[in-house]
Specification:
mainly alpha; 229 residues; 8 helices
Length: 229
């Protein structure tokens, strides 16, 4: 069976240390920015990270006691195989990104295309659920990142505590640095959603900024016949 963690890594301790410092700095800066206007976002991220760490430690201890994971960090039996598959699925952030992106595209792109095509005839209808779709995508990706971060961080500590075969300080440092990078990325996704995408979504709201004025003019032309009917 596969080992619970990869033991061979080309990442040096110096690079891992640099990634750790940069990730911590970025996570703190973005977290503080979010905390000022959206404190609940920071609380949710911290909760999911803490929950993932605790569950990972508890499951690892239970699996070790039950023989599903041996002292070398290798999975055994059907239970071990199931845990290995679950572990890989939760750490596969790329698949989560593809799934979330596909769902968002299916919801938003047909509406945007319909709005543009209908707008040529002056009967465009503004897309709906765009804000909810952006929220779903941003939070889905952020949660995938923070869950993967918590799992990697917990596994780095578990591997050291159990002295798994082939485990090294370099491997632990690499996994810890990767966990911090993923955490910083989670804060980055929420920051972009809250301070960039949401602001763009409200561009046609109240106010007389050049962007809002221009977008209102375009929307008025795209819906000219709808407004007249």
């Amino acid at each position: 069976m596969d080992a619970m963690i990869p033991t061979d890594t080309p990442t040096s301790l110096a690079i891992a240390a640099a990634l750790t410092v940069a990730s911590v700095f970025l996570a703190v800066v973005l977290g503080l920015r979010l905390a000022r206007r959206h404190p609940s976002d920071v609380r949710i991220v911290c909760y999911f990270f803490s929950l993932t760490v605790v569950l990972t430690v508890v499951v690892a201890m239970w699996a070790s006691a039950g023989g599903a994971v041996d002292r070398d960090g290798v999975f055994h039996g059907r239970l071990g195989s199931g845990l290995n598959s679950l572990l890989r699925a939760l750490l596969d952030v790329n698949s989560s990104l593809n799934l979330l992106g596909a769902i968002a595209c299916v919801v938003v792109l047909p509406q945007l295309a319909s709005y543009v095509l209908g707008g040529l005839f002056g009967c465009g209808t503004a897309p709906i659920l765009v804000g909810r779709t952006l929220q779903f995508f941003a939070w889905g990706l952020a949660k995938s990142l923070i869950v993967a971060s918590g799992m990697l961080g917990a596994m780095a500590g578990i591997g050291s505590a159990y002295s798994w075969k082939g485990w090294s300080a370099m491997g632990a440092a690499s996994m810890s640095a990767t966990a911090l990078v993923l955490a910083a990325m989670a804060f980055g996704v929420l920051y972009l959603y809250r301070f960039q995408l949401s602001d763009a979504q409200l561009a046609t709201g109240a106010g007389n900024s050049p962007v809002r004025t221009h977008l209102r003019s375009i929307h008025a032309w795209m819906t000219r016949n709808v407004r007249a009917s």
